[in-house]
Predict the structure of tRNA 5-hydroxyuridine methyltransferase.
Amino acid sequence: MSNINYDYIEDYLRSLLHEEDSLLCELESYAMENHVPIIHPEVKQLLSVIIKSKKIESILEIGTAIGYSSIAFCKAMNKGKVTTIEINEEMKNLATKNIKRAGYENNIDIILGDANEVIKSITGKYDCIFLDGAKGHYVHLLEDCLNLLNPGGLLISDNVLFRGMIASKELVKRRKITIVKRMRKYLDVISEHPQLETSIVPIGDGLAISYYKVVR
């Protein structure tokens, strides 16, 4: 559990979800058994609703892992286009296999490398950018992300409450102090940024949804 909500609330929310995609179910089990971080089921459901309601057609994702969220995004978009960045070659190779199994190999491009460097070479614009990589680097990636985001698009950042540590000093572990400080700074920046309107949603491990305002 994430320390964001009471366990019984998370359990109840997840009991209402009925994932019918056998591959996504398999990947959820794999992630749990192998301690691979993927988006929480209730977060996936919220993002699917947002993608469909906003008619999002292109997504840049920072942090591929096993390809679970990329596949879920394509499913919600009815294919669409996902560009996703992964620093770990083993994870990238596993994600490539899973994406091919899902039939989205023509819709998802995986770039191997450090997002801090790779993002500077990406061109084009996206309807949505999903930050789910190294938590301590969100604040460093922000301006590059905004440069790639369409006006009226969404910047969605996962794990922003980081097991509750962001909101409570009593939960902070010494080895996580740097990440916590950087994440707090990131939340301050996106909450005060003149071109962003941000809502922080306490589900999963904390989700920040930022609307990129059109400059007139």
Q: What stands out?
A: The CA atoms of residues 48 and 135 lie 22 Å apart. The radius of gyration is 16 Å. The first strand starts at residue 58 and ends at 62. The chain has a mean pLDDT of 94.
